From TrEMBL, chains A, B:
<dbReference type="GO" id="GO:0009231">
    <property type="term" value="P:riboflavin biosynthetic process"/>
</dbReference>
<dbReference type="Pfam" id="PF01872">
    <property type="entry name" value="RibD_C"/>
</dbReference>
<protein>
    <submittedName>
        <fullName>RibD-like protein</fullName>
    </submittedName>
</protein>
<dbReference type="GO" id="GO:0008703">
    <property type="term" value="F:5-amino-6-(5-phosphoribosylamino)uracil reductase activity"/>
</dbReference>
<dbReference type="InterPro" id="IPR024072">
    <property type="entry name" value="DHFR-like_dom_sf"/>
</dbReference>
<dbReference type="InterPro" id="IPR002734">
    <property type="entry name" value="RibDG_C"/>
</dbReference>
<feature type="domain" description="Bacterial bifunctional deaminase-reductase C-terminal">
    <location>
        <begin position="8"/>
        <end position="185"/>
    </location>
</feature>
Length: 214, 214
């Protein structure tokens, strides 16, 4: 049985996990401070990062372990909304998207899939969280499925009780604005066991494991 | 430039990291309690372990990341000593040794290499730590080299200042006997930056990063 996993979700002290406005210039909106301690190379393992190897990085490096597919919201794929334009957009990541698996992009405007040589393919589906998870689970071929964000997508999967594992990195900053992660999730902790540790960087990591799987 | 890394080295409160006597029945001597919280499947990533996914397991899962070769002491390969007997011994691990890379076994009695279909090969070398590291570094082909133990081998590489990264799991038990890890290493901390965290299981993880690499 596969797990549905969320990794490296940075959340501010006031509960924001992305900026309000996503533009070509600001892929994560005005919330860049959330990720100031994140070296993105670590998602493929600690080999690729600079010294020192920290507890933060060890935890971030789980991102790619045993993952066979990702589900993401449309805003993670690009800044556009509405009907797709014939603009050649193939995502933020150039010729080497880091996913290396099938990726299911949730959108009300399905379109043809986009494939890359490194194993990444984007599939555009108008689907509920449950339907998307069935598609991704089949594509993952026995491996786990990552819910890749943004925060609204993670929140929707949490509300549908479809997340087995959630790694949050609580960042001690106050954003004041952005995309909220905790709306409509009161009592979420009842469904999970939660382990928390704080590290030398000031981050607090929370590992949420869904109880019904244990 | 590659790192020389030690992972998942369990150490008792009184500084022992293995049992005294290694036999066919007790591959780790009388020190089994050191590993009572360790699910060995995690070395290939969190996908393979049971729920919940804990901080302990996230840290243990670094073991295989970006590793291209291992160096181990002879006692990790088998309980024999002296001249090799023609007994068909191919290590403790059956047909699927977990290493999946070249492994250099330090011994005063070199012999022919042993190869497995899963990418593991054992090479028996009579070499100093520095010589062994040159061989392993070349075999690792741009990836990192793991010093796989046992404790005497780790200690020898630490004394030679050839370890870049060391992950210790301090286990709150008192063994009273076994193979000591800290002998002849007084002041070791001067050469490293050390990050410590304790987890819900009672383990304390220490990540030692060699300063001269930073």
């Amino acid at each position: 049985m596969f797990r549905t996993r969320v990794h490296n979700l940075f959340v501010s002290s006031d509960g924001y996990a992305a900026g309000d406005r996503v533009t070509l210039e600001q892929p994560i909106g005005e919330a860049g401070a959330l990720f100031s301690k994140f070296d993105g190379r670590v998602i493929h393992g600690i080999r690729g990062i600079d010294d020192p190897v920290t507890v933060d990085q060890a935890l971030f490096s789980m991102w790619g372990q045993g993952i066979g597919a990702e589900i993401m919201g449309r805003r993670k794929f690009g800044p556009q909304s509405g009907e797709w334009l014939d603009d050649g957009w193939r995502g933020w990541w150039g010729d080497e998207p880091p996913f290396r698996t099938p990726v299911f992009v949730l959108t009300h405007f399905p379109r043809e899939a986009i494939e890359f040589a490194n194993g990444t393919s984007f599939h555009f589906v108008d689907a509920s969280p449950g339907e998307a998870l069935r598609l991704a689970g089949a594509a993952a071929d026995g491996l786990d499925v990552r819910i890749g964000g943004g925060p609204s997508t993670v929140s929707a999967f949490l509300q549908a009780d479809l997340v087995d594992f959630l790694h949050l990195a609580i960042t001690p900053i106050v954003l004041g604005t952005g995309v909220r992660i905790w709306d409509d999730l009161a009592g979420l902790e009842d469904r999970f066991s939660v382990e928390s540790i704080s590290t030398a960087s000031g981050l607090t990591h929370q590992l949420w494991n869904r109880k019904s799987r244990q």
